[in-house]
Amino acid sequence: MNDNILLETRELRQIYGKGRDRLEALKGVSVKVHSGESIGIIGLSGCGKSTLLRILAGLETPASGTVQFRGQTLDFDSRKSLRDYHRKVQMVFQNPMSTFSPYMTIQTYLLESLRSFGGLEGDGREQAVALLKHVELDETFLDRLPHQLSGGQLQRVVIARALALNPEVILLDEPTSALDILTQRAILELLSQIAKERNMSLIFVGHNSSVVRLLSHRVYVMETGRIVEELFSETMLQDAKEPYTRQFFPENLKKVVYNY
Amino acid sequence: MKKLLDITNLSISYGNKPTVKGVSLRVDEGEIHCLVGGTGSGKSTILHAIAGISSKAVHITAGTIVFDNTDLLALDEKKRRQLLGSRIALVFQNPESYFDSLMTVGDQFVEFLQYRNPAMKKEICLEVSARALREMRLDDPERLLKLYPFELSGGMLQRSSIAMAMLTKPKLLLADEPTSALDIVTQAKILGELKVLNKNTGTAILMVTHNMKVAETLADTVSVMYSGKIVESGDTQTVLHYPSNDYTKELIRSMPTMEEARLIE
């Protein structure tokens, strides 16, 4: 790993609502991703991790603070700046079912971003086949509708689409929490393989540290809008100091249940 | 131990497709049994058949389900309904689907109680409900009962649905992935509640899960399902540490741990 910083946020703040409903979702969050590095973000529901991810995806404008990609500050008010950024940074959501229109074939879905960025060659069928191949699905899926696919297959299609623009970063919001254990394992292995082959960075948000550490070099732990701990994934089990962080280790499950 | 639920040779088809193929399963009084398997293994189908809430396309083609010496499949619809919601209770993966989103939680508790006992006054119903919620360690239950389901977190809703299910003091609680939609910290707390509830009331629990870790934490005994069949069953610790079936081994191997090698260098 080098000091070459790919993606960086500085003092991100985000506020939702007003008056009594005012919620400070991010209270000054600074994170760094070096090139060739993948990071994880762990926290409870409502800690701000999904807000951070949406801002990193350029889908939400922060109240203050900056996002820099290769040293360039993202201008949230400029369509061109956002568009250039989206080309480099793509997002995969938690629930594959909710990202699909039920009437859209897999081929149409896969080619959406290529179409909007003007990268379509002919009817794009060959491009779609190539994308499916990256996620170990064959041509027969192209004309199907979402409900004809399993959860794991759908998540593969979502990943394939994210690859269409050859991004440098993929943001993953709990990409496997809706899947069973065996399917989860297959998707994690696929993601690691893709990241390796394309020298891509992953930013993986989740609440199970044993899952997040598999695909990250470093992990940021978030609590109520702040980063409370930063750890190397390899040694986080030994290094974690905050009791808050230790809650996310699977052994906690047994401990909590037995002490109940 | 006394047999509470005894399933023998159960076969179920979805349309023409067999989804459960000759399953035998036994749950004793006060026992916690986990049915573990992947998506589509048939585990939820069995749970629905016990509860008598299978969809119209589902046909039980063979076998018996005996609960407390009564053959459930021989009962008529009405007797079946009486049993479900009095001696057999049910909680689901998504508590959102258990509650009506347009009614306050309190009104739903009142409806649940008055359906079984029309003479019960509203104030009494609310008192009983508040006590049940407090037992599930929900703070300020009086306030909670005035809220609509969307105002509660996933964990609070799941606690509420368990509290409601337990109002009738059932002998058997059927739980379909009750913690899979929750984060790991909330998951631990809900499993803790189930354990305490089992200890305090003696209610047996039959839980369906894809997560071996959940089974390990909670269950006395487990059955592993694959493609409509039970491929292995026994004492939880034995199955977990000395699995004999290849599919069980794969399930155990696939559980992420903090010690295994990471997938990226």
TrEMBL record, chain A:
ATP-binding recorded as keyword: yes
Any one GO biological process: transmembrane transport
Keywords: ATP-binding, Nucleotide-binding, Transport
SMART domains for the chain: AAA
Pfam families: ABC_tran (PF00005)
Gene3D superfamilies found in the cross-reference section: P-loop containing nucleotide triphosphate hydrolases
Keyword field contains Nucleotide-binding: yes
InterPro entries xrefs: AAA+_ATPase, ABC_transp_ATP-bind, ABC_transporter-like_ATP-bd, ABC_transporter-like_CS, P-loop_NTPase
Domain ABC transporter residues, every copy: 7-249
Gene Ontology MF terms in the entry: ATP binding; ATP hydrolysis activity
Family: Belongs to the ABC transporter superfamily.
PANTHER family, A to Z: D,D-DIPEPTIDE TRANSPORT ATP-BINDING PROTEIN DDPF-RELATED (PTHR43776:SF7), TRANSPORT ATP-BINDING PROTEIN (PTHR43776)
Name of this protein: Peptide/nickel transport system ATP-binding protein
